[in-house]
Design brief:
Blueprint lengths: L7 H9 L1 H6 L9 H17 L12 H24 L16 H14 L5 H13 L3 H14 L4 H10 L3 H6 L7 H12 L3 H16 L3 H13 L3 H14 L7 H10 L3 H15 L3 H13 L3 H14 L4 H13 L3 H14 L4 H13 L3 H14 L4 H13 L3 H13 L7 H11 L3 H17 L9 H14 L3 H11 L6 H22 L27
Helix pairs in contact: 4-6, 5-6, 6-7, 7-8, 8-10, 10-11, 11-12, 12-13, 13-14, 14-15, 14-16, 15-16, 16-17, 16-18, 17-18, 18-19, 18-20, 19-20, 20-21, 21-22, 22-23, 23-24, 24-25, 25-26, 26-27, 26-28, 27-28
Protein name: Cyclosome subunit 8
Organism: Salmo trutta (Brown trout)
Family: Belongs to the APC8/CDC23 family.
Protein backbone atom coordinates (compact mmCIF):
# COMPACT_ATOMS: atom_id res chain seq x y z
CA UNK A 1 0.00 0.00 0.00
CA UNK A 2 1.81 3.11 -1.26
CA UNK A 3 0.09 5.45 1.19
CA UNK A 4 1.71 3.72 4.15
CA UNK A 5 -1.58 2.64 5.72
CA UNK A 6 -0.93 -1.00 5.03
CA UNK A 7 -2.20 -2.85 8.06
CA UNK A 8 -2.33 -6.45 7.02
CA UNK A 9 -2.55 -7.90 10.53
CA UNK A 10 -5.86 -6.11 10.85
CA UNK A 11 -7.38 -7.69 7.78
CA UNK A 12 -6.22 -11.00 9.15
CA UNK A 13 -7.42 -10.32 12.66
CA UNK A 14 -10.61 -8.36 12.00
CA UNK A 15 -11.90 -9.83 8.75
CA UNK A 16 -10.77 -13.37 8.08
CA UNK A 17 -10.86 -14.50 11.71
CA UNK A 18 -13.63 -12.47 13.31
CA UNK A 19 -15.94 -15.44 13.02
CA UNK A 20 -13.75 -18.15 14.44
CA UNK A 21 -12.28 -15.86 17.11
CA UNK A 22 -15.61 -14.80 18.55
CA UNK A 23 -17.45 -18.08 18.08
CA UNK A 24 -14.98 -19.89 20.29
CA UNK A 25 -15.12 -17.39 23.14
CA UNK A 26 -16.26 -18.83 26.46
CA UNK A 27 -14.86 -16.21 28.82
CA UNK A 28 -16.16 -12.84 29.98
CA UNK A 29 -12.77 -11.28 30.60
CA UNK A 30 -13.43 -8.88 27.73
CA UNK A 31 -16.97 -8.17 28.83
CA UNK A 32 -19.79 -8.75 26.34
CA UNK A 33 -18.03 -10.78 23.65
CA UNK A 34 -21.08 -10.84 21.41
CA UNK A 35 -20.99 -7.06 21.40
CA UNK A 36 -17.28 -7.18 20.48
CA UNK A 37 -18.16 -9.25 17.43
CA UNK A 38 -20.79 -6.73 16.37
CA UNK A 39 -18.27 -3.90 16.78
CA UNK A 40 -15.74 -5.68 14.58
CA UNK A 41 -18.23 -6.37 11.81
CA UNK A 42 -19.32 -2.72 11.86
CA UNK A 43 -15.81 -1.33 11.69
CA UNK A 44 -14.91 -3.59 8.76
CA UNK A 45 -17.72 -2.09 6.73
CA UNK A 46 -16.73 1.44 7.61
CA UNK A 47 -13.09 1.00 6.63
CA UNK A 48 -14.03 -0.54 3.32
CA UNK A 49 -16.23 2.46 2.57
CA UNK A 50 -13.19 4.71 3.06
CA UNK A 51 -10.81 2.69 1.00
CA UNK A 52 -8.81 1.56 4.04
CA UNK A 53 -8.79 -2.02 2.89
CA UNK A 54 -6.09 -3.00 5.36
CA UNK A 55 -7.72 -1.39 8.39
CA UNK A 56 -11.00 -1.72 10.13
CA UNK A 57 -15.66 1.78 12.94
CA UNK A 58 -18.75 3.32 12.00
CA UNK A 59 -19.22 6.91 11.01
CA UNK A 60 -22.84 7.95 10.88
CA UNK A 61 -22.06 11.28 9.29
CA UNK A 62 -21.84 11.09 5.51
CA UNK A 63 -20.34 14.58 5.38
CA UNK A 64 -17.38 13.49 7.48
CA UNK A 65 -17.01 10.42 5.31
CA UNK A 66 -16.96 12.55 2.18
CA UNK A 67 -14.41 14.94 3.73
CA UNK A 68 -12.14 12.05 4.67
CA UNK A 69 -12.35 10.58 1.16
CA UNK A 70 -11.55 14.00 -0.35
CA UNK A 71 -8.49 14.54 1.84
CA UNK A 72 -7.40 10.93 1.53
CA UNK A 73 -7.61 11.02 -2.27
CA UNK A 74 -5.41 14.14 -2.31
CA UNK A 75 -2.90 12.34 -0.13
CA UNK A 76 -2.90 9.30 -2.44
CA UNK A 77 -2.58 11.52 -5.48
CA UNK A 78 0.51 13.13 -3.97
CA UNK A 79 1.99 9.71 -3.23
CA UNK A 80 1.32 8.63 -6.81
CA UNK A 81 3.02 11.73 -8.24
CA UNK A 82 5.96 11.21 -5.91
CA UNK A 83 6.46 7.68 -7.22
CA UNK A 84 6.03 8.77 -10.83
CA UNK A 85 8.71 11.43 -10.43
CA UNK A 86 11.18 8.87 -9.20
CA UNK A 87 13.52 7.85 -12.01
CA UNK A 88 12.88 4.19 -12.71
CA UNK A 89 16.52 3.47 -13.35
CA UNK A 90 17.43 4.50 -9.83
CA UNK A 91 15.12 1.87 -8.37
CA UNK A 92 13.34 2.00 -5.02
CA UNK A 93 16.50 2.98 -3.16
CA UNK A 94 16.04 6.61 -4.21
CA UNK A 95 12.35 6.95 -3.40
CA UNK A 96 13.03 8.67 -0.11
CA UNK A 97 14.62 11.61 -1.96
CA UNK A 98 11.30 12.65 -3.53
CA UNK A 99 8.62 14.30 -1.37
CA UNK A 100 4.85 14.17 -1.57
CA UNK A 101 4.15 17.81 -2.42
CA UNK A 102 0.58 17.58 -1.12
CA UNK A 103 1.66 16.96 2.47
CA UNK A 104 2.21 20.57 3.54
CA UNK A 105 -1.14 21.73 2.13
CA UNK A 106 -2.91 18.82 3.81
CA UNK A 107 -1.23 19.62 7.09
CA UNK A 108 -2.37 23.27 7.01
CA UNK A 109 -5.98 22.34 6.25
CA UNK A 110 -6.18 19.44 8.69
CA UNK A 111 -4.50 21.50 11.40
CA UNK A 112 -7.26 24.15 11.18
CA UNK A 113 -9.96 21.47 11.42
CA UNK A 114 -8.11 19.83 14.30
CA UNK A 115 -7.86 23.07 16.26
CA UNK A 116 -11.61 23.55 15.78
CA UNK A 117 -12.29 20.01 17.03
CA UNK A 118 -13.85 18.99 13.73
CA UNK A 119 -11.83 15.82 12.97
CA UNK A 120 -13.34 12.40 13.61
CA UNK A 121 -11.38 9.17 14.10
CA UNK A 122 -10.48 8.38 10.49
CA UNK A 123 -9.49 11.94 9.63
CA UNK A 124 -7.41 12.16 12.81
CA UNK A 125 -5.64 9.03 11.60
CA UNK A 126 -4.93 10.63 8.20
CA UNK A 127 -3.68 13.80 9.94
CA UNK A 128 -1.29 11.66 11.97
CA UNK A 129 0.03 9.98 8.81
CA UNK A 130 0.64 13.39 7.22
CA UNK A 131 2.52 14.59 10.32
CA UNK A 132 4.63 11.45 10.36
CA UNK A 133 5.47 11.86 6.69
CA UNK A 134 6.65 15.39 7.46
CA UNK A 135 8.83 14.04 10.32
CA UNK A 136 6.77 15.90 12.93
CA UNK A 137 6.90 12.84 15.12
CA UNK A 138 5.94 14.32 18.49
CA UNK A 139 2.80 15.89 17.02
CA UNK A 140 2.06 12.66 15.15
CA UNK A 141 2.14 10.62 18.37
CA UNK A 142 -0.32 13.01 20.03
CA UNK A 143 -2.70 12.86 17.08
CA UNK A 144 -2.57 9.04 16.82
CA UNK A 145 -3.34 8.75 20.54
CA UNK A 146 -6.29 11.08 19.98
CA UNK A 147 -7.36 8.91 17.02
CA UNK A 148 -7.36 5.76 19.18
CA UNK A 149 -9.65 7.52 21.66
CA UNK A 150 -11.97 8.74 18.93
CA UNK A 151 -12.07 5.37 17.15
CA UNK A 152 -10.61 2.60 19.35
CA UNK A 153 -11.30 -0.22 16.88
CA UNK A 154 -9.30 1.30 14.03
CA UNK A 155 -6.20 -0.91 14.21
CA UNK A 156 -4.39 1.25 11.67
CA UNK A 157 -4.03 4.10 14.17
CA UNK A 158 -2.66 1.70 16.78
CA UNK A 159 -0.04 0.35 14.37
CA UNK A 160 1.04 3.81 13.27
CA UNK A 161 1.44 4.71 16.93
CA UNK A 162 3.44 1.54 17.48
CA UNK A 163 5.99 2.58 14.87
CA UNK A 164 6.63 5.87 16.69
CA UNK A 165 7.11 4.52 20.22
CA UNK A 166 10.83 4.20 20.91
CA UNK A 167 10.98 2.71 24.43
CA UNK A 168 8.95 1.38 27.34
CA UNK A 169 9.02 4.69 29.20
CA UNK A 170 7.41 6.42 26.25
CA UNK A 171 4.79 3.68 26.05
CA UNK A 172 3.92 4.05 29.74
CA UNK A 173 3.59 7.81 29.40
CA UNK A 174 0.80 7.58 26.80
CA UNK A 175 -2.83 7.93 27.83
CA UNK A 176 -4.45 5.15 25.82
CA UNK A 177 -8.17 4.31 25.70
CA UNK A 178 -9.47 1.68 28.11
CA UNK A 179 -10.66 -0.74 25.44
CA UNK A 180 -10.24 -4.48 24.91
CA UNK A 181 -8.17 -3.89 21.76
CA UNK A 182 -5.55 -2.19 23.93
CA UNK A 183 -4.43 -5.65 25.14
CA UNK A 184 -3.65 -6.64 21.54
CA UNK A 185 -1.74 -3.42 21.08
CA UNK A 186 0.29 -3.91 24.27
CA UNK A 187 1.22 -7.46 23.26
CA UNK A 188 2.28 -6.22 19.83
CA UNK A 189 4.20 -3.35 21.41
CA UNK A 190 6.06 -5.64 23.82
CA UNK A 191 7.17 -7.73 20.86
CA UNK A 192 8.39 -4.65 19.00
CA UNK A 193 10.33 -3.47 22.06
CA UNK A 194 11.96 -6.91 22.38
CA UNK A 195 10.19 -7.49 25.72
CA UNK A 196 9.43 -11.03 24.66
CA UNK A 197 8.63 -12.45 28.09
CA UNK A 198 5.97 -9.78 28.64
CA UNK A 199 4.64 -10.24 25.10
CA UNK A 200 4.23 -14.00 25.53
CA UNK A 201 2.48 -13.50 28.87
CA UNK A 202 0.05 -11.03 27.30
CA UNK A 203 -0.70 -13.35 24.36
CA UNK A 204 -1.21 -16.26 26.75
CA UNK A 205 -3.69 -14.11 28.66
CA UNK A 206 -5.54 -13.40 25.41
CA UNK A 207 -5.63 -17.11 24.58
CA UNK A 208 -7.09 -17.88 28.00
CA UNK A 209 -9.66 -15.13 27.44
CA UNK A 210 -11.14 -17.06 24.54
CA UNK A 211 -8.86 -16.44 21.57
CA UNK A 212 -7.29 -19.89 21.63
CA UNK A 213 -8.03 -20.53 17.93
CA UNK A 214 -6.79 -17.18 16.71
CA UNK A 215 -4.25 -17.69 13.96
CA UNK A 216 -3.28 -14.03 14.41
CA UNK A 217 -2.13 -14.73 17.98
CA UNK A 218 -0.32 -17.91 16.93
CA UNK A 219 1.55 -15.95 14.27
CA UNK A 220 2.48 -13.21 16.74
CA UNK A 221 3.82 -15.76 19.23
CA UNK A 222 5.84 -17.35 16.44
CA UNK A 223 7.27 -13.92 15.55
CA UNK A 224 8.14 -13.37 19.22
CA UNK A 225 10.10 -16.64 19.34
CA UNK A 226 11.76 -15.66 16.06
CA UNK A 227 12.90 -12.41 17.67
CA UNK A 228 14.66 -14.24 20.52
CA UNK A 229 16.14 -16.76 18.08
CA UNK A 230 14.26 -19.73 19.51
CA UNK A 231 14.20 -21.17 16.02
CA UNK A 232 12.80 -24.60 16.85
CA UNK A 233 9.79 -23.20 18.70
CA UNK A 234 9.15 -20.58 16.02
CA UNK A 235 9.32 -23.17 13.21
CA UNK A 236 6.92 -25.46 15.08
CA UNK A 237 4.39 -22.65 15.46
CA UNK A 238 4.65 -21.58 11.83
CA UNK A 239 4.14 -25.17 10.69
CA UNK A 240 1.08 -25.36 12.94
CA UNK A 241 -0.13 -22.10 11.42
CA UNK A 242 0.27 -23.49 7.89
CA UNK A 243 -1.77 -26.56 8.82
CA UNK A 244 -4.59 -24.41 10.22
CA UNK A 245 -4.53 -21.90 7.37
CA UNK A 246 -2.76 -23.31 4.28
CA UNK A 247 -3.63 -20.23 2.18
CA UNK A 248 -2.19 -17.78 4.65
CA UNK A 249 0.36 -15.28 3.30
CA UNK A 250 0.75 -12.96 6.28
CA UNK A 251 4.01 -13.50 8.19
CA UNK A 252 5.26 -16.08 5.71
CA UNK A 253 8.26 -13.85 5.00
CA UNK A 254 9.26 -14.28 8.64
CA UNK A 255 8.76 -18.04 8.30
CA UNK A 256 11.07 -17.99 5.27
CA UNK A 257 13.73 -16.18 7.33
CA UNK A 258 13.75 -19.12 9.74
CA UNK A 259 13.98 -21.66 6.92
CA UNK A 260 16.85 -19.61 5.48
CA UNK A 261 18.76 -19.60 8.78
CA UNK A 262 18.38 -23.37 9.02
CA UNK A 263 19.37 -23.80 5.34
CA UNK A 264 16.15 -25.77 4.75
CA UNK A 265 16.28 -25.39 0.97
CA UNK A 266 13.53 -27.91 -0.01
CA UNK A 267 11.07 -26.45 2.52
CA UNK A 268 11.85 -22.89 1.40
CA UNK A 269 11.40 -23.88 -2.24
CA UNK A 270 8.03 -25.48 -1.48
CA UNK A 271 6.89 -22.40 0.44
CA UNK A 272 7.91 -20.08 -2.40
CA UNK A 273 6.07 -22.13 -5.06
CA UNK A 274 3.02 -22.41 -2.81
CA UNK A 275 2.79 -18.65 -2.23
CA UNK A 276 3.23 -17.92 -5.95
CA UNK A 277 0.18 -20.10 -6.62
CA UNK A 278 -1.83 -18.22 -3.97
CA UNK A 279 -0.81 -14.66 -4.87
CA UNK A 280 2.46 -13.85 -6.60
CA UNK A 281 1.88 -10.09 -6.30
CA UNK A 282 2.04 -9.97 -2.52
CA UNK A 283 4.98 -8.38 -0.71
CA UNK A 284 5.46 -11.48 1.43
CA UNK A 285 5.63 -13.71 -1.66
CA UNK A 286 8.38 -11.57 -3.19
CA UNK A 287 10.38 -11.68 0.05
CA UNK A 288 10.08 -15.46 0.30
CA UNK A 289 11.29 -15.87 -3.30
CA UNK A 290 14.13 -13.45 -2.55
CA UNK A 291 15.19 -15.56 0.44
CA UNK A 292 15.06 -18.69 -1.73
CA UNK A 293 17.43 -17.21 -4.31
CA UNK A 294 19.68 -15.86 -1.59
CA UNK A 295 19.99 -19.32 -0.05
CA UNK A 296 21.07 -20.55 -3.50
CA UNK A 297 23.68 -17.74 -3.56
CA UNK A 298 21.91 -16.06 -6.50
CA UNK A 299 22.14 -12.66 -4.86
CA UNK A 300 21.30 -10.53 -7.90
CA UNK A 301 18.03 -12.39 -8.38
CA UNK A 302 17.33 -12.15 -4.66
CA UNK A 303 17.85 -8.37 -4.70
CA UNK A 304 15.52 -8.10 -7.71
CA UNK A 305 12.66 -9.75 -5.80
CA UNK A 306 13.22 -7.58 -2.74
CA UNK A 307 13.01 -4.57 -5.07
CA UNK A 308 9.71 -5.90 -6.40
CA UNK A 309 8.46 -6.15 -2.83
CA UNK A 310 9.38 -2.51 -2.28
CA UNK A 311 7.55 -1.42 -5.43
CA UNK A 312 4.45 -3.03 -3.94
CA UNK A 313 5.05 -1.44 -0.54
CA UNK A 314 7.91 1.06 -0.09
CA UNK A 315 7.47 0.81 3.70
CA UNK A 316 8.14 -2.92 3.84
CA UNK A 317 10.75 -3.07 6.59
CA UNK A 318 11.89 -6.63 5.99
CA UNK A 319 12.49 -6.05 2.28
CA UNK A 320 14.77 -3.06 2.92
CA UNK A 321 16.83 -4.98 5.46
CA UNK A 322 17.08 -8.13 3.37
CA UNK A 323 18.05 -6.13 0.29
CA UNK A 324 20.81 -4.54 2.36
CA UNK A 325 22.07 -8.04 3.16
CA UNK A 326 22.08 -8.96 -0.52
CA UNK A 327 24.05 -5.85 -1.49
CA UNK A 328 26.53 -6.77 1.23
CA UNK A 329 26.92 -10.20 -0.36
CA UNK A 330 27.54 -8.50 -3.71
CA UNK A 331 30.15 -6.16 -2.10
CA UNK A 332 28.04 -3.13 -3.03
CA UNK A 333 28.51 -1.29 0.25
CA UNK A 334 27.04 2.06 -0.86
CA UNK A 335 23.77 0.42 -1.93
CA UNK A 336 23.73 -1.64 1.27
CA UNK A 337 24.08 1.52 3.37
CA UNK A 338 21.18 3.13 1.50
CA UNK A 339 18.98 0.09 2.01
CA UNK A 340 19.71 -0.14 5.73
CA UNK A 341 19.07 3.57 6.18
CA UNK A 342 15.71 3.25 4.45
CA UNK A 343 14.87 0.40 6.85
CA UNK A 344 15.67 2.67 9.79
CA UNK A 345 13.46 5.39 8.30
CA UNK A 346 10.60 2.91 8.26
CA UNK A 347 11.27 1.68 11.80
CA UNK A 348 14.01 3.05 14.01
CA UNK A 349 13.69 -0.03 16.23
CA UNK A 350 14.94 -2.40 13.54
CA UNK A 351 18.14 -3.62 15.18
CA UNK A 352 19.03 -5.66 12.09
CA UNK A 353 19.40 -2.50 10.01
CA UNK A 354 21.59 -0.80 12.65
CA UNK A 355 23.67 -3.98 12.91
CA UNK A 356 23.90 -4.21 9.12
CA UNK A 357 25.19 -0.63 8.95
CA UNK A 358 27.82 -1.51 11.53
CA UNK A 359 28.96 -4.48 9.46
CA UNK A 360 29.06 -2.35 6.31
CA UNK A 361 31.28 0.28 7.89
CA UNK A 362 33.42 -2.50 9.33
CA UNK A 363 34.13 -3.64 5.77
CA UNK A 364 34.99 -0.04 4.94
CA UNK A 365 37.42 -0.04 7.91
CA UNK A 366 35.69 2.84 9.67
CA UNK A 367 35.63 1.69 13.31
CA UNK A 368 34.17 4.89 14.78
CA UNK A 369 31.12 4.53 12.54
CA UNK A 370 30.94 0.83 13.41
CA UNK A 371 30.92 1.70 17.09
CA UNK A 372 28.05 4.15 16.67
CA UNK A 373 25.82 1.73 14.76
CA UNK A 374 26.65 -1.29 16.91
CA UNK A 375 25.78 0.78 19.99
CA UNK A 376 22.39 1.53 18.47
CA UNK A 377 21.84 -2.17 17.78
CA UNK A 378 22.92 -3.05 21.31
CA UNK A 379 20.50 -0.53 22.83
CA UNK A 380 17.67 -2.27 20.99
CA UNK A 381 18.94 -5.78 21.84
CA UNK A 382 20.83 -5.42 25.16
CA UNK A 383 20.94 -9.19 25.76
CA UNK A 384 21.96 -10.24 22.26
CA UNK A 385 25.50 -11.59 22.39
CA UNK A 386 26.10 -10.83 18.70
CA UNK A 387 25.67 -7.10 19.30
CA UNK A 388 28.00 -7.25 22.30
CA UNK A 389 30.70 -9.18 20.43
CA UNK A 390 30.51 -6.68 17.55
CA UNK A 391 30.83 -3.82 20.05
CA UNK A 392 33.81 -5.52 21.66
CA UNK A 393 35.54 -5.90 18.30
CA UNK A 394 35.00 -2.22 17.55
CA UNK A 395 36.40 -1.16 20.92
CA UNK A 396 39.37 -3.46 20.39
CA UNK A 397 40.15 -1.91 17.00
CA UNK A 398 40.05 1.50 18.67
CA UNK A 399 42.45 0.23 21.39
CA UNK A 400 39.77 0.73 24.06
CA UNK A 401 40.70 -2.55 25.66
CA UNK A 402 38.88 -2.14 28.97
CA UNK A 403 35.57 -1.56 27.18
CA UNK A 404 36.27 -4.44 24.80
CA UNK A 405 36.83 -6.83 27.71
CA UNK A 406 33.56 -5.73 29.33
CA UNK A 407 31.64 -6.37 26.11
CA UNK A 408 33.13 -9.83 25.54
CA UNK A 409 32.47 -10.91 29.11
CA UNK A 410 28.95 -9.54 29.00
CA UNK A 411 28.33 -11.41 25.75
CA UNK A 412 29.41 -14.65 27.44
CA UNK A 413 27.28 -13.92 30.50
CA UNK A 414 24.04 -13.34 28.58
CA UNK A 415 24.49 -16.55 26.56
CA UNK A 416 26.91 -16.49 23.68
CA UNK A 417 24.95 -17.96 20.77
CA UNK A 418 27.99 -18.16 18.50
CA UNK A 419 30.43 -19.22 21.24
CA UNK A 420 33.01 -16.66 20.22
CA UNK A 421 33.00 -14.14 23.09
CA UNK A 422 35.30 -16.06 25.46
CA UNK A 423 37.66 -16.90 22.63
CA UNK A 424 37.97 -13.24 21.65
CA UNK A 425 38.40 -12.25 25.29
CA UNK A 426 41.14 -14.83 25.75
CA UNK A 427 42.97 -13.64 22.64
CA UNK A 428 42.75 -10.04 23.84
CA UNK A 429 44.22 -11.01 27.21
CA UNK A 430 46.92 -12.93 25.35
CA UNK A 431 47.69 -9.91 23.18
CA UNK A 432 48.02 -7.76 26.31
CA UNK A 433 50.33 -10.33 27.94
CA UNK A 434 47.75 -11.06 30.65
CA UNK A 435 48.57 -14.73 30.62
CA UNK A 436 46.66 -15.82 33.72
CA UNK A 437 43.42 -14.21 32.54
CA UNK A 438 43.91 -15.58 29.03
CA UNK A 439 44.42 -19.09 30.38
CA UNK A 440 41.31 -18.86 32.55
CA UNK A 441 39.20 -17.80 29.56
CA UNK A 442 40.60 -20.57 27.38
CA UNK A 443 39.84 -23.13 30.10
CA UNK A 444 36.20 -22.05 30.38
CA UNK A 445 35.94 -21.89 26.60
CA UNK A 446 37.21 -25.45 26.09
CA UNK A 447 35.01 -26.85 28.84
CA UNK A 448 31.95 -25.15 27.33
CA UNK A 449 32.74 -26.50 23.86
CA UNK A 450 33.39 -30.04 25.08
CA UNK A 451 30.32 -30.10 27.31
CA UNK A 452 27.97 -29.27 24.41
CA UNK A 453 29.58 -31.71 21.99
CA UNK A 454 30.76 -29.13 19.47
CA UNK A 455 34.47 -29.70 19.80
CA UNK A 456 34.90 -31.36 16.40
CA UNK A 457 33.06 -28.56 14.63
CA UNK A 458 34.93 -25.72 16.28
CA UNK A 459 38.34 -25.05 14.78
CA UNK A 460 39.44 -22.74 17.60
CA UNK A 461 39.69 -25.50 20.21
CA UNK A 462 43.17 -26.32 19.00
CA UNK A 463 44.17 -22.66 19.48
CA UNK A 464 43.07 -22.81 23.10
CA UNK A 465 44.81 -26.14 23.69
CA UNK A 466 48.08 -24.86 22.19
CA UNK A 467 48.06 -21.81 24.43
CA UNK A 468 47.20 -23.77 27.57
CA UNK A 469 49.87 -26.37 26.83
CA UNK A 470 52.54 -23.65 26.68
CA UNK A 471 51.05 -21.84 29.67
CA UNK A 472 51.14 -24.91 31.88
CA UNK A 473 54.62 -25.78 30.66
CA UNK A 474 55.96 -22.32 31.57
CA UNK A 475 54.38 -22.65 35.00
CA UNK A 476 55.92 -26.13 35.43
CA UNK A 477 52.57 -27.90 35.60
CA UNK A 478 53.83 -30.71 33.43
CA UNK A 479 50.93 -33.13 33.88
CA UNK A 480 48.42 -30.53 32.67
CA UNK A 481 50.79 -29.44 29.89
CA UNK A 482 51.15 -33.04 28.76
CA UNK A 483 47.37 -33.53 28.69
CA UNK A 484 46.91 -30.42 26.54
CA UNK A 485 49.71 -31.52 24.22
CA UNK A 486 48.07 -34.92 23.79
CA UNK A 487 44.76 -33.25 22.95
CA UNK A 488 46.56 -31.06 20.41
CA UNK A 489 47.55 -34.21 18.55
CA UNK A 490 43.86 -34.80 17.81
CA UNK A 491 43.78 -31.70 15.57
CA UNK A 492 45.61 -31.44 12.26
CA UNK A 493 46.60 -27.81 12.67
CA UNK A 494 48.05 -28.39 16.16
CA UNK A 495 49.45 -31.90 15.88
CA UNK A 496 53.09 -30.98 15.25
CA UNK A 497 53.13 -28.42 18.05
CA UNK A 498 51.56 -30.99 20.38
CA UNK A 499 54.25 -33.53 19.55
CA UNK A 500 56.99 -30.92 20.00
CA UNK A 501 55.62 -29.97 23.41
CA UNK A 502 55.45 -33.62 24.48
CA UNK A 503 59.14 -33.98 23.57
CA UNK A 504 59.98 -30.90 25.62
CA UNK A 505 58.06 -32.23 28.61
CA UNK A 506 59.81 -35.59 28.29
CA UNK A 507 63.24 -33.91 28.21
CA UNK A 508 62.46 -31.81 31.28
CA UNK A 509 61.21 -34.81 33.20
CA UNK A 510 64.28 -36.82 32.26
CA UNK A 511 66.45 -33.96 33.49
CA UNK A 512 64.48 -33.72 36.73
CA UNK A 513 64.84 -37.44 37.34
CA UNK A 514 68.59 -37.24 36.73
CA UNK A 515 68.87 -34.33 39.11
CA UNK A 516 66.89 -36.11 41.80
CA UNK A 517 69.42 -38.99 41.84
CA UNK A 518 72.08 -36.55 43.07
CA UNK A 519 71.24 -36.62 46.79
CA UNK A 520 73.93 -34.10 47.54
CA UNK A 521 72.78 -31.53 44.97
CA UNK A 522 71.52 -28.16 46.21
CA UNK A 523 67.77 -27.62 46.56
CA UNK A 524 66.32 -25.20 43.99
CA UNK A 525 63.13 -23.26 44.52
CA UNK A 526 62.81 -22.99 40.76
CA UNK A 527 61.63 -26.61 40.62
CA UNK A 528 58.47 -25.77 42.60
CA UNK A 529 55.42 -25.53 40.34
CA UNK A 530 53.46 -22.30 40.54
CA UNK A 531 49.71 -22.72 40.06
CA UNK A 532 48.35 -19.60 38.40
CA UNK A 533 44.93 -20.98 37.49
CA UNK A 534 42.95 -24.10 38.21
CA UNK A 535 44.25 -27.05 36.19
CA UNK A 536 42.24 -28.06 33.16
CA UNK A 537 40.38 -31.34 33.61
CA UNK A 538 39.82 -32.92 30.22
CA UNK A 539 39.67 -36.47 31.45
CA UNK A 540 35.92 -36.77 31.01
CA UNK A 541 35.88 -35.34 27.50
CA UNK A 542 37.02 -36.80 24.25
CA UNK A 543 37.25 -34.81 21.02
Amino acid sequence: DKCAVSIRPVIHFFIRHTGNLISCLDSTVFGDLVEIKKQLITVISLCKERGLVHSVKCDMYNLQKAYFLYMYSRYLSGEKKKDDETVDSLGPLEKGQVRNEALRELRVELSKKHSAGELEGFTLYLYGVVLRKLDLLKEAVEVFVEATHALPLHWGAWLELCNLITNIDMLKSLSLPDCWIRDFFMAHMYTELQMIKEALQKYQSLIESGFSKSTYIISQIAVAYHNIRDIDQALALFNELREQDPFRIENMDTFSNLLYVRSMKPELSYLAHNLVEIDKYRVETCCVIGNYYSLRSQHEKAALYFQRALKLNPRCLGAWTLMGHEYMEMKNTSAAIQAYRHAIEVNKRDYRAWYGLGQTYEILKMPFYCLYYYRKAHQLRPNDSRMLVALGESYEKLSQHVEAKKCYWRAYSVGDVERMALLKLAKLHEQLNESDDAAQCYIIYIQDIFSCGEQLEHAEVSTALRYLGQYYFKNKLYDEASLCAQRCCDYNDAREEGKALLRQISQVRDHMEASSTDLFGPLSSNNTPVRRVSPLDLSSFSP
